[in-house]
Design a protein that fits this description.
mainly alpha
Length: 118
Amino acid sequence: MSQKSLLDQRLEEFRKKYYTDQIIRGSLVLLLLVSSILFIVLLGEGLFGFSSGVRTGIVMFLGLGFAGVLGWMVIRPLVRLTKLAPGIDDFQIADMVRNHFPDINDKLTNLLQLKKRS
């Protein structure tokens, strides 16, 4: 296997792991958000007995909030994982790797620039 295809394979593996991690984090945040707000709303309803207008407003507001969190933290990474929308490029991946592994310096970036030229 050539070095070029190995590099492309590794970058694609990184991309998949990155977006999978974002989807898992977004799902956990959404689950915690839904359960905690549901608990608070049910507690408030039991203590204060909201009118039907207030309940409707709460449901509308929470529905929009949950849809926003679902779209931003779960669906957006899922769309980028399936390559329906542009995601992180190779140079952004190189920056992320360089931040976590400083001993690599600009070697990966230089390799990507050479790949781009050829």
